[in-house]
Amino acid sequence: GGLPNRARPLELATTWRVRMDQGSQEFIAGQLVAVLSSVADDGTPRACSIFYILDPAIPALIFKSRLQSDHIVSLRSRPFAAMAIYRHDSGYSRKAGIQLTGTVERVSTAAEMTRYVNQYSERLPGADEHFEPIERLLENDVEATLWRFNISEYKFTDNWSGRLDLTYSDVKQR
């Protein structure tokens, strides 16, 4: 049971203003990759893999993406998105994963951008080499910057612990 054998996150989400159970928080904090899904203006679905960090105060996942990527173009006009995160040693009969819904917004303040770039670089070795200076990350014509996926609801399955959520839970009511 528990988290896969990975580096422990810097801080678990014990300070969230909204509520999410500890098992779900630990699962999200223990993974690095998610699949982000959105819908383009013409109704075309979009999906991409992202590396993320957890902002334990919101709750939100922070990820880096290009402004001109298909999913970001879609999300700028329709900010509603879904994410799926799974345990990478899952198999058909033994699996763990969490499904999330929420909204995406660009990180827009220098203080948040600085904090997130530092956390992202610490959690994902080598990432710091791919960031522009903070002031540049906030400009409208930068190639890539950080985005925040604000979690609205979630559904968690973990066959290792025997948990199976059949319906989504609203993070504001848990």
Task: Give a quick precis of the structure.
This protein is of the alpha+beta class and 174 residues long. It has helices at residues 22-30, 70-77, 110-123, 134-137, and strands at 33-39, 45-55, 60-66, 80-86, 96-106, 144-158, 163-164, 169-170.
Task: Tell me what you see in this structure.
Helices cover 20% and strands 36% of the residues. The protein has helices spanning 22-30, 70-77, 110-123, 134-137; strands at 33-39, 45-55, 60-66, 80-86, 96-106, 144-158, 163-164, 169-170. It has a six-stranded antiparallel beta barrel. The protein starts with 21 loop residues before the first helix and ends with a strand.
The residue ranges in which pLDDT falls below 50 over 5 or more consecutive positions are 1-18
Task: State the secondary-structure class.
Answer: alpha+beta
- Beta percentage is 35-45%
Helix content: 10-25%
How far the N terminus sits from the C terminus, by CA atoms, comes to: 23 Å
The DSSP helix count reads 4
Average pLDDT, all residues = 86
Sum up the overall morphology in one term: globular
Radius of gyration, CA atoms, in whole angstroms = 16 Å
